[in-house]
Each structure stands twice: as C-alpha cells, then as structure tokens.
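Researcher: Re-running this chain for the archive, since the previous output was lost when a drive failed. Same request as before.
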Amino acid sequence: MSPTYALFEVAADSLEVVAAQASQERALLTAHAEAMDSKAGLLVGFAATVTAFSVAHHDWLVRVALFASLLAGMTGLWGIVVRRSRVFLTIDLDGVFGSVEQPAPATTAQLLDAQRQIVRRLERTVGLKAVLLQLSAGFLVVALLLLLVANLVS
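Model: Regenerated structure tokens:
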C-alpha cells in the first residue's frame, strides 16, 4: 500500500467522523428550533388572551398594557415565522455518505462543508428565535404588571 493511499484513507475516515458529529448537531438544533416554535405558540396564545381581556377597558394604563400584549404577540409570532421563512437544505447528507461506496476525500469534504454551513445557519436562526422569545415574554410580563397595577388603582 502506498503512503498516499493510506493518507487518503485516514483523511476519509476522519472526515466521516466529523460529518457524523455535524449531522448530530444539525438534528439537535432542528429539535431545539421545533421546541422553540411550540413555546412561541404558547406565548402568542397567552398574549392573545391578555389582549382579549383588556380590550373592553378604557383606562389609559390598560391601553398601555394592551399595546404591550400586542407587542408580545407580534414578537412571538415573528419568532415562529423566522424559522419558517428561512430555507434550509433538506438533502439527507447522511444518506449521501452511506450511498457512495468509496467517496473521494474531496467529495466528502465538500459534503462536510455543506453540512457545516447548514449548522451555522441553524445556530443563527435558533439564536434569533431565542432573542425574539425573550422579547415576547418580556412584553407579556410588562402587560401583566400594567394590568395588575390598573386593577389595584381602579
């Protein structure tokens, strides 16, 4: 066996290990984004409930609370739309690795680069969703505190 061939075997084996790790990370980030979607849905529903209960009152403090709950609902909804609006590569890269009998290390490296780009994009999306959900929860807390103060004052 030539030293060059042995080097390509080692490179291909290590690339496949890194690709498997990237695939696991992509699956974990996708599951995390799905969980954040359900949390955003709960925030939107709760903000809608607060909004519905505060519409009938004409007190200025309740109106400010209404505005805060509307902001909570909109940022929560935006948290859901962010992921749905971004297009992710849906090719099963794991299947590509298994379907080629002896992929060249260059091909494996290109697939790994695509895998890493997907993971980086998912990381940015999950980070943006987290910020939006924190904003939504913050607006909702402000709305509830304003409603509490309005009920205590009146």
